[in-house]
Amino acid sequence: MFHQGRRYKQYSNEQLIAAYRKTEDKAVVGMLYKRYAHKVLGLCLNYLKNVQDAEDAVMEIFIHLTEELKKHDIENFEPWLFFVCRNFCLKRLRKTLSKKNEDISEIHEDFFVELGEEKDHNKEEERLEALSVAINRLKEDQKRCIVLFYFEKKSYKEIELQTTYSIKEIKSHLQNGKRNLKNLLTA
Question: N or C: which end of the chain has fewer CB within 10 A?
Fold first, then answer.
């Protein structure tokens, strides 16, 4: 297994996914874990606000990936993984909020006039879902720059090093991506 893990190190994300679909070798998912666990942890921390919950979520997400990678045709792994993480965290938050609301209602229903938190949470979830759909409709270069800059908090220089885009192109993709997102979200 160690030898195969080293072999997979040279594979692109797309090659890893194809290899996993063919062999279902867990070393492939292990390689994706090595590449992305730190980013997934950061995203989970951003949503869950608790280190232990975020670490647990990372493990559950990568376990979940062993099934998801077989089901979906994934063209661009990193943004897809971001949305899987986001949806996982939102589901976890929804479950936690639901449990809190059940606990509160058991205490005394008349004590609270209105639970505005649930309404706010639903609006936020709808807004995030609309944003997710809109981002997926962007051109690939715009989508990649938007995700790297706004969601992964990468600098222009880091994006330049990670992609083939120049700083000028990155700025252009971000500007056009933001304009297109605004148009998609207000249409």
Answer: C
**Which CATH code, of 2.30.260.10, 1.20.210.10, 1.10.10.10, 3.90.550.10, is assigned to 137-187?**
1.10.10.10
Q: Where are the domains of the chain?
A: 2-119, 137-187
Which tokens belong to 159?
A: 């994006």
- Architecture of the CATH domain 2-119: Orthogonal Bundle (1.10)
Q: How far apart are CA 156 and CA 154, in angstroms?
A: 7
CA proximity to 64, closest of 81, 49, 79: 81
- pLDDT tens digits for range 104-145: 444 444 434 444 444 555 677 777 777 878 888 889 899 888
Full DSSP string of 26-56: HHHHHHHHHHHHHHHHHHHHHHH--HHHHHH
The number of residues making up the chain comes to: 187
The alpha carbon dihedral of 12, 88, 50, 46 has a sign of positive
CA distance 38 to 71: 24
